[in-house]
Amino acid sequence: MRYNQVRDLVVWAADYHGRMSRQFSDRAGVADSERLQMALDYLAAEERRMKAGLDDVLADESGQQKVLNTWFDDPTDFPQPPELEHLAQYATYDSIESAMETATQAHKALQRLYEYRAEKAAIPAGADFFRSLAEGHEAEVRRIVSQFEEFNDL
Predict the structure, then answer these.
(1) Which end of the chain is less crowded, N or C, counting CB atoms within 10 A of the terminal residue's CB?
(2) Could you tell me where the DSSP H helices lie in 29-95?
(3) Which CATH architecture has domain 3-153?
């Protein structure tokens, strides 16, 4: 559909984080090493945290209802860039490095999506909202890289 509400994008993003969390958890259960299991469990927990944050935004008492109810026109394949779909479906988690790469690629892609939506926002509050989400993903990439440096030191 060409016309969507910001709410639609946030619901999709929350679902995406939930999907990635389940994938990381599932792979942790069959990981070849304890280090890889710890890394995947960490990523699953981070994805659950990101999903919970978006679920909180969607709650009626979040104060974001005006932004969430804003419509936007997006003639592209809303809401998911093909890169994110590919990461969700075909990612491999056979090493700490591949798990980190998948997670950071997903967060960078979401960051770019939110930055784009901030540029195209119909109202200033929408631009601020999407910039905040983009900054959150930028911070998440830094957190993941830092944490994975510690996993490599184990």
Answers:
(1) N
(2) 34-58, 65-68, 82-90
(3) Up-down Bundle (1.20)
